[in-house]
Design brief:
Distance between the termini of chain A: 50 Å
Largest sheet of chain B: 5 strands, antiparallel
Structural class of chain A: mainly alpha
Largest sheet of chain A: 4 strands, mixed
Number of strands of chain B: 33
Structural class of chain B: mainly beta
Shape of chain B: globular
Helix content of chain A: 55-70%
Mean pLDDT of chain B: 82
Number of helices of chain B: 3
Shape of chain A: globular
Mean pLDDT of chain A: 88
Oligomer: heterodimer
Chain lengths: ~450, ~525
C-alpha cells in the first residue's frame, strides 16, 4: 500500500514536472552542422584551387598565384568556419530550389555549385568565384516569397556562370602589368614630389574603371537571372519587389516594432538614465557635403553596384509582362515562412556565440518588444548582460560592441551608445533589475539558473 | 550596408602587393604621421587630430593633412594645406564653439594660431613672429618638453569667447612669459608680456573666472636670484589690462598652483603655503591653502590646512609635509563633486641621494645633482565644503626616479614639484576627467610593473562614482612596437599601437572600470 501511494506521488510529480517544462520554449540552440557535407565542400574547394592554379596564365603567374591563393584561403575559411548552415532541415529546402533552377536551365546543368545559407546578420548574398555561393540569413528574413529567394540565387548563379570573378582578376592583373600602368608608376616614383597626389589620380582612374565593370556585371547578372527565373516558372515580378526591398534595406525590420530601450530597460529599482544616450555636442555642428573628399559624381563612380532604382528601370525595360503569371512558391510556402523565424533565431544565437554582443542584445530586445513573454529572449538578455560584464571586466569589450554608424538603425545606435557608456556596476544593476522584472516568468527556463548564479557572484 | 549587397568578391586595386622588380602603388605611396592628440574642452575629450605629411610638394614644402575626428574617431574633416617642411602642430583646444590649432614653423620662426568655426572652416589666423633669441629660448623650454601628458602645454579654452595661450618669451636680456588671448567671435587679440621691475619672470596661468584672468607670477631680480617675489596678477579678459597685482602674503606666504571653480560658480586658488618670511623656492611648506580673490584683488576667503594637524589625522605626516613612504605631495588637481565634497588629487615625491650625481660631482665637479627625485604614489584627499580635511588615501604605484641638474638639492619641495612637472614631465599622473553633472570623475596615471606574470607599462585609473571609489588597470604592453595612450571620453582611454614592421597604426578605445 505504501509502495502504491509512493508510486502515485511519483507519477503525479513526474506529470507536473513534464507539464511545467512543456510550458517553456526550449533554449534555442544553433542548428547542427552536417559535418560530412561541410568536409565535402571544403575538399572540393581544395580541388578547385589546384585546378585554378594549374590553369593560370604563365605570363603573370606570380600575380595570379598570389590572388588565387588569397581568394581560396577565404573560401576555405568560410567552409571551416561556423557561419554556413548545413543542417539538413534548413539546407535541404534551399537545395531543392537551387536544383529546380539548375534543372530548368540547360546552361547551368554542368555547373559545380555549393549554395548555402550563412548565419551572418547583414543582408547580403555573394558568389565567391569557385561555385561557392552564400546567402546571408540577414537577407533571407526580409524576402517575401520563394520567387524572391529564387531571384537572389539566380543572380549569384549568373555571376558564376558568366565568370565575373575570374574576369575581374584577369582585368586587374593585366592592368597592373600593362606597359602604360608600369610606365606611369615608374615616372611618378622618379619624380620625388607630389607623388601621392599623382598616385591618387592613377588609383582613382583604376578604381573607377573596376567599379564601372562591377556595375556592368550586376546588370548582366540581373538580366541572366530574369531568364533563369522565367525558365524555372517563378514570378519574375519578384525581381522588382526584391530590388525595392533592397533599396530600403537600411530601414527594413523583421518585426513590426523596433526595440525601445528607454522603456524596455527602465525599472523602478533602476531607472533608465538619459545620460546613457544623450547626444554629446560635437566639434563641428554643421559640415556640408562639400567637406567630403569626393564629389557627388565621384561617389557615384565609386559604387560597386548600380542603384536599385536603376536596376529596376533596366529590369522593366527587358521584362515584357505578357500576362504569363509565374509562381511565388513552387516548393513549400510554409517552410519558407517558418524558416524566416528560425533564421532570425540563428542570427541572434550566432551573434552571441561570435561575441557580437551588441547585435545579440539588440535582436533579443527586438523580440521582447514584440513578444513580451518570449522566454528565449528574456534568457538571452540576462545571458548577454552577464557576458558584457565579463568582457568589460577583462578589458575585452571592444570586440563585442559595434561602433555607431550612420547606416545602422537609429534605435541600434542608441543601444550602442548606451553600451559604450555603461559602467561595470551599471551593467550588473541593470541586469539585476531586469531579472527582478522577469524572474518569475523564466525561473525554470533551461540555463537560466546558471546565469542567475553568475549574476549573483558579479553582484557581490 | 547597401554597398555590399549582391557582391561578387571585389578585386581591390590596392589590396595586392607585387614582387620587387615591378612597381606597385603601395611601394611608392608614403605618408608620415607627424603627431596626434586629443582635442579637449577642459577635461572633456571632444575629438582627436592626426597631423600628417600627405605629400612632398618640392624641396622646401610639404602638403599636410590635418585630420579632425569626433570623440568616437569618426572623421569630421580633413584640412589640407601646403607649408614649409618644418611645420608641426604643437597644441589644440576647443572652447565649446571653436577649435584652435597652434602651428610652429621652424623655418619662418613663427607660431600660428588657426581658429576653426563650427562649420569646419577657418575663421581667423593669428601669427606671432619670434626673434632668434625667442626661438632659442622656446627650444630650451616650451618646445623641449615632449611628454605624453602635455604638462607643459599652455593653450586654454575660455568657453564661447576664445583661448588663452601661455608661452615663455624673451625680451632683450630679460627672460619672461607671454600671455595671449585670441578671440573667436571676432578677430581680436591682446598680449600681456611683463618686462618691468625684474630680470626674470615665471608665470603660471591659473584660470579665468568672472572675466578675470588669474596669473601666479614669480619675479627674480637677477638670473641667479634664489628668493623670487611671488605675486598674484589679475588681468581683464576683455582688454588684457592689468587689474591688480598683489603679493601672496597674508597670514602666511601663499604659493598658488591652480584655480578651480566650485559648483556655485565661485572660484578659489589653491596651493602650498609657507611662513611669512620663507623662501618659496627653498623652504619647506606648512600645508596647503585655499584663497578666494575678488575683481579688485582683495582676498575674501582664506583657509589653511596644516600637514600634521589636519592631514595627520588620516596619514602619518610630519609638520614639514612629509608623508611616510610617500614623501611630499604635488597637488595636480582639485575637483568638487555634486554633493559638495572637494577632492584633491596629488602625487608623492622624495629626495634621494643620486649615485650618478655624486659620481658626477667627484669626477667633474658638477652637471648632475647629488640628489635625485623618486616619484612615489598617488593620493586622494577629501575635503568638505568648508575645506576641512575629511579623508585621505594613498594609492600605491611603483616608484621611478628623476635625475636633477646640479643645484636642485637646494630647492624647496614645492619648487621641486613644479620643476619635476613642468621641466621634466616626471610625474606619472596623466589627467583627470569629470562628468557633466559632477557625479563622477576619473584620475588617470601611468605606471610600470615588473611582476612574474607581466612586465611592462600599465595605465591606471581611480574612479569616483556617486561616493564609491574603484580602481582599474590596463596593461599597455602588447606585440606592438610602441603604444601610447590618449584620453578618451570619461571612463575610456584611446590606445594607439604602432607596428613598425607593418607600418601600421591600430587605434582603439578601452573602457576603464
Amino acid at each position: 500500500m505504501k509502495t502504491a501511494r509512493y508510486l502515485i506521488v511519483l507519477i503525479i510529480t513526474l506529470l507536473f514536472t513534464t507539464h511545467s517544462f512543456a510550458q517553456l520554449s526550449p533554449q534555442y540552440l544553433l542548428q547542427k552542422d552536417d559535418t560530412l557535407l561541410r568536409t565535402k565542400y571544403f575538399d572540393e574547394t581544395a580541388v578547385n584551387e589546384k585546378l585554378a592554379l594549374s590553369k593560370i596564365d604563365k605570363r603573370y603567374s606570380g600575380d595570379y598565384k598570389k590572388i588565387y591563393k588569397e581568394e581560396y584561403k577565404k573560401i576555405a575559411e568560410f567552409w571551416s568556419g561556423s557561419s554556413p548552415i548545413t543542417d539538413p532541415g534548413v539546407n535541404d529546402y534551399l537545395q531543392t530550389i537551387v536544383q529546380k533552377i539548375i534543372s530548368s536551365n540547360v546552361e547551368l546543368k554542368s555547373m559545380d555549385v555549393r549554395v548555402v545559407f550563412s548565419r551572418d546578420w547583414w543582408p547580403n548574398a555573394y558568389s565567391m568565384g569557385d561555385g561557392t555561393i552564400a546567402i546571408n540569413a540577414g537577407l533571407y528574413i526580409f524576402l517575401k516569397n520563394e520567387a524572391e529567394l529564387a531571384f537572389v540565387i539566380s543572380h549569384e548563379l549568373a555571376h558564376y556562370y558568366l565568370g565575373h570573378t575570374e574576369k575581374a582578376i584577369q582585368a586587374y592583373v593585366e592592368k597592373i602589368n600593362s606597359k602604360q600602368y608600369q610606365t606611369d608608376l615608374k615616372r611618378i616614383s622618379r619624380q620625388g614630389y607630389s607623388v601621392n597626389k599623382q598616385l591618387g589620380d592613377l588609383m582613382k582612374t583604376m578604381i573607377f574603371d573596376t567599379r564601372r565593370h562591377g556595375r556592368d556585371n550586376e546588370s548582366d547578372a540581373d538580366e541572366y537571372a530574369l531568364r533563369f527565373m522565367k525558365n524555372t516558372g517563378y514570378d519574375c515580378n519578384a525581381i522588382k519587389t526584391t530590388l525595392q526591398t533592397l533599396d530600403n534595406i537600411d530601414d527594413a525590420t523583421y518585426f513590426a516594432k523596433v526595440p525601445n530601450i528607454e522603456t524596455e530597460l527602465n525599472f523602478s529599482g533602476f531607472p533608465f538614465k538619459q545620460s546613457w544616450i544623450s547626444k554629446q555636442s560635437s566639434i563641428f555642428s554643421s559640415l556640408s557635403d562639400e567637406d567630403s573628399p569626393e564629389s557627388i559624381q565621384e561617389k557615384d563612380s565609386l559604387k560597386t553596384h548600380p542603384d536599385c532604382k536603376k536596376r529596376i528601370l533596366l529590369f522593366e525595360a527587358s521584362w515584357k509582362d505578357n500576362g504569363e503569371k509565374g509562381n511565388s512558391f513552387l516548393i513549400n510556402e510554409k517552410k519558407f515562412n517558418d524558416l524566416k523565424r528560425q533564421l532570425f533565431y540563428e542570427i541572434m544565437e550566432y551573434a552571441y556565440h561570435e561575441d557580437d554582443l551588441s547585435r545579440n542584445l539588440y535582436y533579443s530586445l527586438m523580440i521582447l518588444e514584440n513578444e513580451p513573454n518570449n522566454e528565449y529572449a528574456i534568457y538571452s538578455v540576462v545571458r548577454c548582460f552577464n557576458r558584457l560584464w565579463d568582457l568589460q571586466k577583462k578589458h575585452q569589450l571592444r570586440q563585442a560592441i559595434e561602433k555607431e554608424d550612420k547606416f545602422f538603425p537609429a534605435e541600434y545606435n542608441l543601444l550602442l551608445r548606451m553600451l559604450d557608456r555603461l559602467s561595470l556596476d551599471e551593467i550588473v544593476s541593470l541586469n539585476v533589475a531586469f531579472v527582478s522584472e522577469y524572474e518569475e516568468a523564466i525561473k525554470d527556463y533551461p540555463g537560466f539558473a546558471a546565469e542567475l548564479d553568475t549574476l549573483k557572484k558579479m553582484n557581490n | 550596408m547597401k554597398k555590399s549587397i549582391f557582391a561578387i568578391i571585389a578585386i581591390m586595386a590596392i589590396t595586392y602587393s607585387v614582387n620587387a622588380q615591378k612597381m606597385s602603388i603601395e611601394n611608392v605611396y608614403k605618408i608620415t604621421l607627424r603627431n596626434s592628440d586629443a582635442i579637449r574642452q577642459g577635461s572633456e575629450v571632444k575629438g582627436y587630430y592626426f597631423f600628417y605629411v600627405s605629400d612632398k610638394v618640392d624641396r622646401k614644402n610639404n602638403e599636410y593633412t590635418l585630420r579632425i575626428t569626433d570623440e568616437n574617431l569618426a572623421i569630421l574633416k580633413d584640412v589640407k594645406f601646403e607649408d614649409s617642411k618644418n611645420v608641426t602642430v604643437l597644441e589644440s583646444s576647443f572652447n565649446g564653439t571653436d577649435l584652435i590649432f597652434l602651428f610652429y614653423n621652424e623655418d619662418e620662426r613663427t607660431l600660428e594660431y588657426k581658429v576653426y568655426g563650427a562649420d569646419g572652416k577657418m575663421k581667423f589666423s593669428y601669427v606671432r613672429e619670434l626673434t632668434k633669441k625667442e626661438k632659442t629660448f622656446l627650444q630650451m623650454t616650451y618646445l623641449s618638453v615632449n611628454d605624453d601628458e602635455n604638462t607643459y602645454k599652455g593653450l586654454y579654452p575660455i568657453e564661447g569667447l576664445g583661448f588663452i595661450s601661455n608661452t615663455p618669451s624673451r625680451e632683450s636680456r630679460d627672460f619672461t612669459f607671454q600671455i595671449d588671448f585670441f578671440s573667436t567671435d571676432k578677430k581680436n587679440q591682446w598680449t600681456y608680456n611683463p618686462t618691468e621691475g625684474a630680470k626674470k619672470f615665471l608665470g603660471d596661468y591659473l584660470g579665468t573666472s568672472n572675466s578675470i584672468v588669474y596669473l601666479e607670477v614669480l619675479k627674480y631680480s637677477s638670473i641667479m636670484d634664489q628668493k623670487p617675489e611671488s605675486s598674484l596678477v589679475g588681468l581683464s579678459l576683455e582688454t588684457g589690462k592689468q587689474l591688480f597685482e598683489i603679493g601672496t602674503d597674508s597670514k602666511y606666504r601663499f604659493y598658488p598652483s591652480s584655480l578651480s571653480t566650485l559648483n556655485d560658480g565661485s572660484s578659489f586658488l589653491f596651493g602650498e603655503f609657507f611662513d611669512q618670511d620663507a623662501n618659496v623656492i627653498k623652504d619647506k611648506s606648512k600645508g596647503f591653502a585655499f584663497w578666494k580673490v575678488d575683481a579688485a584683488g582683495k582676498i575674501t576667503f582664506e583657509k589653511y590646512c596644516l600637514w600634521d594637524a589636519d592631514l595627520g589625522k588620516y596619514l602619518n605626516v610630519s609638520s614639514k609635509g612629509k608623508i611616510d613612504d610617500f614623501g611630499y605631495m604635488y597637488l595636480h588637481k582639485m575637483v568638487q563633486v555634486a554633493d559638495g565634497s572637494i577632492y584633491a588629487i596629488g602625487e608623492g615625491y622624495k629626495k634621494n641621494a643620486s649615485a650618478l650625481g655624486i659620481a658626477s660631482k667627484v669626477l667633474s665637479g658638477g652637471g648632475i645633482s647629488a640628489v635625485k627625485i623618486k616619484v612615489t604614489d598617488m593620493i586622494l584627499i577629501k575635503f568638505d565644503k568648508s575645506f576641512d580635511v575629511k579623508n585621505a588615501k594613498i594609492y600605491d604605484k611603483n616608484s621611478n626616479s628623476v635625475e636633477l641638474p646640479s643645484g636642485a638639492e637646494y630647492m624647496s619641495a614645492a619648487a621641486l614639484g613644479k620643476f619635476i612637472k613642468y621641466t621634466y614631465g616626471g610625474f606619472d599622473y596623466a589627467y583627470t576627467q569629470v562628468n557633466k553633472d559632477k557625479t563622477s570623475f576619473t584620475v588617470c596615471y601611468s605606471d610600470y610593473e615588473r611582476g612574474k606574470d607581466y612586465k611592462g607599462g600599465t595605465f591606471n585609473s581611480i574612479t569616483y562614482n556617486n561616493g564609491k571609489i574603484t580602481t582599474d588597470k590596463i596593461n599597455t604592453k602588447s606585440d606592438a612596437s610602441s603604444t601610447s595612450v590618449l584620453p578618451g571620453k570619461q571612463g575610456q582611454v584611446l590606445m594607439l599601437d604602432y607596428y613598425k614592421r607593418a607600418k601600421r597604426l591600430d587605434i582603439h578605445f578601452e573602457k576603464l572600470n
